[in-house]
Amino acid sequence: QSHAGLFNLCIVVLVAVNGRLIIENLMKYGLLIRAGFWFNSTSLRDWPLLMCCLSLPAFPLGAFSVEQLAFRNVITDAVATCLHIILTTAEIVYPVLVILMCDSAVVSGFLLMFIACIVWLKLVSFAHTNHDIRQLTISGKKVDNAPSTADMDNLQAPTLGSLIYFMMAPTLCYQPSYPRTENVRKGWLIRQIILYLIFTGIQGFIIEQYINPIVVNSQHPLKGGLLNAVETVLRLSLPNVYLWLCMFYCFFHLWLNILAEILRFGDREFYKDWWNAKTIDE
Q1: pTM (2 decimals)?
Q2: Is the CB of residue 184 less than 8 Å from the CB of residue 264?
Q3: Which residue among 101, 176, 196, 210 is least packed, with the fewest CB closer than 10 Å?
Q4: Angle at 245 between CA 200 and CA 190, to 5 degrees
Q5: Residue 143: its pLDDT value, please?
Q6: Where along the chain do its domains lie?
Q7: What is the sign of the dihedral through the CA atoms of 136, 90, 50 and 268?
Q8: Rounded average pLDDT per 10-residue block, the chain, 282 residues
Q9: Nearest to 126 by CA among 86, 88, 99, 178
């Protein structure tokens, strides 16, 4: 039997409930979004985090230097591995120390660590892939994770251009070369940028209008009762769902596609239809 009518009723109820919550919030708090939400005078205190973020490219350059020395047989494979371990460890510890020393804001620290984690994952992939390439070059045999038919043009030392492209490209898996599109679709790119700005603003609106008032007006979990804590979590659940959906759409769909279009990156499968997954493994 078809349950389309029941499904439509659930949609109507969902829209009505969410609409009531939106109206209730506006009547109670008014419009809370302000011009200084994204940047204000207090943001200047986090300038060490900006300097730390700008200095992170030094670690990929260090990894590039290690690979150049390894391919020229100046250092052994074991030494190259040790140097990569030191570089990757320092790359992830360095921003943590800066955040702790500067007592930075949560959002600024999160953004810095988010970028640092991406760089760390890229460095790990860069080291592993070049290690496999060196092994293929030296022994002429297959190694783990090597392609079945190796392209000999790719079995060479990484170039600075390939490293820069990899660090900018929306991928965590290093390859000497990637599939590229023929051109940049300027009209499509502009539409994606506009959507990105719109949904970024929606995220700020959700945080400022719905999440912050609930957090500010709620009791401390350790001071209030269990029911108060549960009630606060339930009140935060709905705006958090919308926020996470907007974050997913902004980053995985809009931002990665914008980067891919600018860099003419060919592989656009950044995610699959996880919303249709029936198990956690899917």
Answers
A1: 0.78
A2: yes
A3: 101
A4: 40
A5: 45
A6: 45-168, 186-275
A7: positive
A8: 73 81 76 62 70 92 93 88 94 91 79 93 93 79 49 73 91 88 90 93 85 77 70 82 90 91 86 72 64
A9: 88
